[in-house]
Specification:
The structure is a single chain. This protein is 24% helix and 25% strand. The protein is built from three helices and eleven strands. The chain has helices spanning 2-26, 106-111, 165-176, and strands spanning 45-46, 49-51, 61-66, 72-77, 82-86, 89-92, 101-104, 121-124, 130-137, 144-145, 163-164. The strands form three sheets. Strands 1, 2, 4, 7 and 9 form a five-stranded antiparallel beta sheet that branches. Strands 3-8-5-6 form a four-stranded antiparallel beta sheet, with no helix packed on it.
Length: 181
């Protein structure tokens, strides 16, 4: 099992870096301008989620509404359960066989000064047992991030102050799990 998971992790890491470079270029920066935050060290990880069968008449959520805190999330899902909020309506994200779902994270929203928005999303409980495997593309803990110079000008002031990734992630984790101590 380990070689398969390692290969999946490495493929997601490489794809995430390619996507990051495309997004940096789209924001008017050199493609490799954000690489130093992810190379050689970073805090990315794969999480394996198990959702047991839920046959209650009113189904609870598998995961409450949230945004992802890092730069990008690549999601391998096996059943339609992910929903994204748009205009106060929840929309189902149908999984495509052999494809990954890509989410923008809070960090990319800050770097882009809101040009890229981290979507509010949730996961539904379903009547079938299922799994998902999100890959969270996160920088090194030493990363300080703020809107990129290319997206800030007198007409578009910075909407965010500089944020340290370790401090932000620690605060998010404390909030994510505040009800569990």
């Amino acid at each position: 099992f380990r070689p398969i998971i390692q290969a999946f992790y490495e493929a997601c890491d490489a794809l995430s870096l390619r996507l990051l470079r495309i997004m940096a270029r789209n924001l008017g920066m050199p493609p490799e301008s954000l690489d130093a935050h992810f190379r050689p060290a970073h805090t990315s990880f794969v999480r394996f989620n198990y959702y047991p069968k839920c046959s209650q008449p009113v189904k609870p959520l598998g995961v409450n509404p949230h945004t992802d805190s890092g730069a990008l999330t690549l999601l391998l899902q096996d059943a339609p359960a992910l929903e994204v909020s748009r205009n106060r309506t929840w929309w189902l994200v149908e999984p495509v066989p052999g494809a990954l779902t890509v989410n923008i994270g809070d960090m990319m929203q800050v770097w882009s000064n809101d040009e890229y928005a981290a979507p509010l999303h949730r996961v539904l409980a379903t009547e079938e047992e299922r799994f998902s495997a999100p890959f969270f593309f996160n920088p090194s803990y030493a990363t300080n991030y703020a809107p990129l110079p290319s997206v800030v000008d007198p007409r578009h002031p910075a909407r965010y102050r500089s944020i340290n990734w370790r401090e932000f992630r620690d605060q998010r984790a404390a909030g994510d799990y505040a009800d569990a101590g």
